[in-house]
Every structure is written in C-alpha cells, then in structure tokens.
Amino acid sequence: MQHDFWHKKWSKREIGFHLPQANPLLVNYFSALNLEPGARVFLPLCGKTMDIAWLLAAGYHVLGAELSPVAIQDLFESLHLTPVILELGDVTHYSAPNIDIFVGDIFHVTPAMLGRIDAVYDRAALVALPDDMRLRYSEHLMALTCYAAQLLICYEYDQSLVAGPPFSIDPQAVAQYYQASYALHLLATVDVSGGMKGRCSATEHVFLLTPLKAV
Questions:
Q1: What domain range includes position 188?
Q2: Across the strands, what pairs with 93?
Q3: What's the pTM?
C-alpha cells in the first residue's frame, strides 16, 4: 500500500474506517493485558481514533505512529490539546501530557524514539497492510516494542468479494506472523454488523498475544 493512497484518503476525508467512539472490542477486552495505571501503550497506524481518548481517560500513556499529519492534527484538536512538535529526521514527533505520536513512515520509527512500551493495541495496522508488507511490519513491530504483549483485532471475510483495506486476516495468518514469539489466545470472534462494506459477511477476531520469553 503506497503512501499516496493513505494521504489521499485523509485529504479527501474518505475515512469510513474511523469510528465516532471507542471500539467496543477495546473497551471489552483491553483488561486482558493486565496493565498498571500509567502503562505505556503503543498504537501503530493510529489515525485519529477515539480509542486514544478512551486510553488516556483510563490513565494510560499513549504512543502512536501514523503516516498522515492531517489525521494527527485532527486528533490533537479533538483532544483539545496543543502539541509540541519536533522534527526527528524523517519523523515528526507530536507530544502533549501522556501522549506521543510519531508522524511518518512507521518503518522510520525507532525503539529509541518510543522508549519503553508495555503493550501494543493493533486495531488498524495489520489489517491495513497488503500481504507482501505484513511480515516486514510484524517483525518491525516486535523489534520496535521489544516484544511487548499485544491486543490485536483483525477482520476475516472472503477477500475475493471485497478488495481491502481493511484486508482479511484469518487466525492462521496471525499464527504465521507471531506464533514464533508469542502465545496466541483468541479472546473473541464477533460478527461485523452489515458485513464488510455491505458486500459480504465478516467477523472480527480479538487476540491476546503474550510474549513467550522476556527479551
């Protein structure tokens, strides 16, 4: 998926994937990560998701990576926060109390930029990437977060009927990317109301990924 694709989506506000409230699956299953207040939670390809406001209100420090500066400008406006903005090479760092967002190509974000990560919440990243990018992404994410535990949400549907994104990712694909480093726990499978873009039935899977060993 080329950068221009997402920049055009945000510039035209073609963001049907954006929910007007926190994702119910986040609300229902985030406690499975068993995090302490103040824990540092990383959201890859975060956009301007309302999940961030929910996590902040719950007392967590939120870190994110996002390609579109438009999305992050909208995010801080919605949070009623004025960010401090710093250029870090190819990445721009937007920060305010308890929130740090890195704008640019996620593959240019480094562990040194993020610091300690206690957990990853991936609702929008793995499903946004085509098959030929997912392995590289998953390897980068693990290195970036030092194999932090993950709450991962992904869609499954008949990809031949609907073009992604979001792309269809079944449990076997999740295992392909992560089972060497994590124990995979399927917490829930729920039907998507209205199916995938109204064209075919779809389900969402909620996974807890627990690291197999300390790194």
A1: 3-211
A2: 86, 102
A3: 0.92
